[in-house]
Design goal:
By secondary structure, the chain is an alpha/beta fold. The protein has 23 helices and 26 strands. The strands form 7 sheets. An 8-stranded parallel β-barrel has the order 1-2-5-11-12-13-14-18, surrounded by 4 helices. Strands 19-20-21-26-23 form a 5-stranded antiparallel β-sheet, with helices on one face. A 3-stranded antiparallel β-sheet has the order 7-9-8, covered by helices on one side.
């Protein structure tokens, strides 16, 4: 690679000019190991890795030369501040462009709304051109180089990114790494027998190999899409992990890596700041395994990170990896030694533990599960969320359940029953999704507000229950805002919007009840956010208050450490957050229908000798007889001096 830097120097100076070339070559020197090592791991013995590296670095140089001046300036700022995405002022918002505002230009017309909420990171759900008809929520991409025409054009995406940057808001979009739509140009050429394209996919002539793989493969959608292979007439048996119209790419072929790098660099040059890498755990297949989280999948992502960083150093990568915590932290680079991989990853376990505690009014499972996991490497960050576009899968391990005195299978079954309104006394209004008759596993659909009880309280006209439900919603978000990482607000949660009653009116959605928690934005409801007596006003004020409080707390920036502090009260979750440059922070959250208290000695355990109240549900903190009093479904934030 040292020879490569020398060989490419003249071309870099010709394409970039002296100053930009110096920066590019300095990055190449810094990233050499991070490029070559993963390529050798994946492709050593398969191809000439030196030539492959030269080709990929040449592609990165091409993209760097095409990078617009405004994005180069942004790159320089982020190279000076590589932890730009870790700051406590990073507050995310997630929405579908069409359901939020009709189109990309429509989103641009509502930036004042996002700014009012305190948003500095906008994730627009899949917006690249999907296949027509059924498209797995638009994750079956037909063209990575075009925006869904229903949303606008690539020029509209560039304009929106520029408008967001003017307001200090980063833009995140999805790039699907594991598969393309069957209608994608690569797949069509593979089906037509064009040389080179068939090898971009995993295609078998008969069932012998697929059957050997199936022996250890789980099913992602056992009801809607059983099995992992689809027989395509005239083509063969195609690997289709998710649906029969989504063809898995063959990353054992380095041409696939190169093609996907080109996709990512092109999107970065449109102004995208964060790429969410969809289905990252599935990139490598190995017989006798579940074909998830394989070492080669990590090496592929490591190489993509280094190569995109070479061309666009302001770009960050986010792993969509809904896997166990032991596997999840590896996507942030936590291996036997730190190997830079993704900058961000979803904290799926925190989300699951919050809904478990809400249903049981018991935090002991959360204390154990969250207290024993490996921390994220200091340069990376979690993305914390209460709700997302997807269903909720009950990722509770049997070992964690047993440590909390629970039977894992029984607890997962209870959670499904509780949130699908089958459990007596449940306040939740969700629905079962993806029930697997063979294993008994099931997941849940439903908006955060509906699962917290807002819908049932409104239907009953019960104001006390409505207050409790809104407090549940606020408390869950208070944890997401303070546990460490970038908090994400899922569109509509800031207004406590319920399920979409007409989710199945669209024939393309009728088979998938996840659309019940993907409602169109209700702008009439949003107009009531200034009314403190309305549901929307109460929810919006709570969310905006969390954002304001968080922005001023250095302890809540990523790169710090979160420590669970058991209180002896099974209904109160407590944790201490510290950062090398901050005083300690303490959060207390009450998961109970009745008021609870904890010993004030927890302040000493948190290292707070002169604690100050920062933020809470009631706006104040009560300390009586050496105990901290918490109201039902409430939280309190305290900080040291």
């Amino acid at each position: 690679m040292a020879g490569l830097a020398v060989a490419i120097e003249a071309e870099a100076r010709r394409r970039l000019g002296a100053d930009e070339a110096d920066a590019f070559l300095a990055r190449l020197e810094q990233l050499t190991f991070d490029i070559l090592e993963p390529l050798e791991h994946v492709y050593g013995g398969r191809t000439d890795c030196g030539q492959l590296a030269a080709d990929l670095v040449g592609d990165a140089l091409e993209a760097a030369a095409a990078r617009p001046p405004a994005l180069r300036r942004l790159d320089r700022r982020r190279e000076i501040d590589p932890a730009w995405f870790q700051r406590s002022r990073m507050i995310g918002y997630v929405c579908y462009a069409d359901r939020f505002a009709g189109s990309l230009p429509g989103v641009g017309g509502h930036l004042d709304y996002l700014a009012e909420l305190g948003v500095s990171y906008l994730h627009l759900m899949p917006l690249l051109r999907p296949r027509p008809g059924e498209s797995d929520g638009d994750y079956a991409v037909e063209d990575y180089g075009a925006v869904d025409p229903r949303l606008g054009t690539m020029a509209d995406l560039e304009d929106l990114a520029a408008s967001l940057h003017e307001r200090g808001i980063a833009l995140c979009i999805d790039v699907v790494l594991n598969h393309t739509a069957a209608e994608h140009e690569w797949a069509r050429k593979a089906a037509a027998g064009e040389p080179g394209y068939r090898d971009m996919y995993l295609i078998f002539g008969d069932r012998a190999e697929p059957d050997r793989y199936e022996a250890s493969l789980p099913e992602v959608f056992p009801g809607a899409a059983p099995g992992n292979f689809t027989q395509v007439p005239g083509v063969g048996w195609v690997w289709t992990t998710f649906h029969d119209y989504q063809w898995d790419l063959n990353y054992a072929n380095p041409a696939v890596l190169r093609a996907m790098l080109a996709v990512m660099l092109a999107l970065a040059n449109r102004g995208v700041d964060v790429l969410r890498l969809d289905a990252a755990p599935f990139l490598w297949k190995r017989q006798g395994t579940d074909c998830q989280n394989q070492p080669e999948a990590h090496s592929i992502v490591q190489a993509l990170r280094a190569l995109t960083r070479l061309a666009a150093p302001g770009l960050a990568l986010k792993a969509e990896a809904i896997v166990g915590p032991e596997q999840l932290v590896q996507y942030l680079g936590a291996h036997d030694r730190y190997r830079p991989e993704c900058d961000l990853a979803y904290d799926n376990q925190l989300m699951v533990m919050l809904w478990s505690a809400l249903a049981t009014r018991d935090v002991r499972l959360a204390e154990h599960a969250l207290g024993r996991r490996r921390p994220a490497p200091a340069p990376a960050a979690w993305v914390s969320y209460v709700r997302c576009h997807d269903d909720i899968g009950w990722a509770v391990s049997d070992a964690d359940a047993a440590a909390a005195g629970l039977d894992g299978a029984a607890h997962r079954r209870f959670l499904t029953e509780f949130y699908s309104r089958r459990f007596p006394g449940s306040f939740a209004r969700g629905e079962v999704f993806g029930h697997n008759r063979a294993t008994g596993d099931a997941r849940i659909s439903g908006s955060a507000a509906a699962l917290c009880g807002v819908e049932s309280a409104l239907a009953a006209g019960d104001q006390d229950q409505l207050t409790a439900a809104l407090r549940r919603l606020e408390s869950l978000y208070a944890v997401a805002f303070s546990f460490g990482g970038i908090p994400l607000i899922y569109s509509g949660d800031e207004l406590a919007l319920g399920n979409d009653p007409r989710w199945d009116a669209d024939p393309g959605h009728a088979h998938d009840n996840r659309w019940m928690h993907r409602p169109p934005m209700n702008w009439a409801a949003a107009a009531r956010r200034a009314d403190p007596g309305s549901v929307e006003g109460r929810a919006f004020a709570a969310m905006a208050g969390l954002a304001r409080a968080r922005r001023e707390l250095l302890a809540l920036r990523s790169g710090g450490h979160t420590q669970i502090l058991p209180t002896g009260n099974r209904s109160v979750l407590a944790y201490r957050r510290v950062h090398p440059r901050s005083a300690p922070f303490l959060a207390l959250t009450c998961f109970s229908d009745t008021g609870q208290s904890v010993d004030a000695g927890i302040l000493d355990r948190a290292g707070m000798h002169e604690p100050r109240h920062v933020h809470s549900t009631a706006g104040q903190l009560t300390l009586t007889a050496g105990r901290i009093e918490l109201e039902p479904w409430s939280f309190a934030w305290l900080a040291g001096r």
